[in-house]
Amino acid sequence: MNYKLLSWDTKFFNIKTGRIIPASLQENQLVSILVEMRKEKFKLVYWASEQQNTYELQAYSSMLADKKTTFEINLQNINLDKLPLPKAKPYCSSFPFSQLEKLAIQSGVYSRFALDTNFPHEKFTALYKTWIRKSVSGEMADEVLVIMQNNHIAGMVTLAIENGVGDIGLIAVDEKFRGR
């Protein structure tokens, strides 16, 4: 099988949601998988392609919802002591969680969930609130760091480490503090 059911997404969005697994497919292969998934009553399908495609998929109501870029750096080659980094601290329950939720939502304003008109705005905000809550609880992140300015959370980042590689889940600077 070249796709899988995404149980959490299906439950959250209340529509059968799946992911096409191979990142590289010929157009006829993709169409074949989409036909099979349509028969299985999938309503939302993700496919992370390795290259930009010009496939004609209007019959499947497809759209390019997102372009992602991955940045990588080997921290062994950087002297972190010489970087002018703001003082981040781990999020703790004494910080206002509502501010953290607002930042989580701000982090997603250009995401596929905010830009795709097939997703209701309420689902977008609920998704990002769930994401930050699960990050703080340790389910989706190993650490949530914040930058405080006058008792206000000015910025935040969620971090996870898997197999020695760090991954940023959410990152945002409050709109009142941007450009500094």
Structural class: alpha+beta
Radius of gyration: 19 Å
What is the string of SSEs from the N terminus onward? Answer: EHEHEEHHHEEE
Mean pLDDT across all residues, rounded?
89
The span between the termini is 49 Å
Regarding quaternary structure, how should these chains be classified?
single chain
Report the total helices. Answer: 5
Helix share of residues?
A: 25-40%
Q: What proportion of the residues form beta strands (DSSP E)?
A: 15-25%
Q: Main β-sheet, in a few words?
A: 4 strands, antiparallel
Low-confidence segments, ≥5 residues, pLDDT <50? Answer: none
Strand order of the largest sheet: 4-5-6-7
Please count the beta strands (DSSP E, at least 2 residues each): 7
Question: Explain this structure to me?
Answer:
The structure is a single chain. Helices cover 28% and strands 22% of the residues. The chain is an alpha+beta fold and 180 residues long. The longest helix has 16 residues, at 121-136. α3 crosses α5. The strands form 2 sheets. It has a 4-stranded antiparallel beta sheet with strand order 4-5-6-7, covered by helices on one side. It is globular and about 55 Å long. The chain has 5 helices and 7 strands. The mean pLDDT is 89. It has helices at 7-13, 27-39, 97-107, 112-115, 121-136; strands spanning 3-5, 17-20, 44-47, 89-90, 143-149, 152-162, 165-173. 14% of the residues are buried.
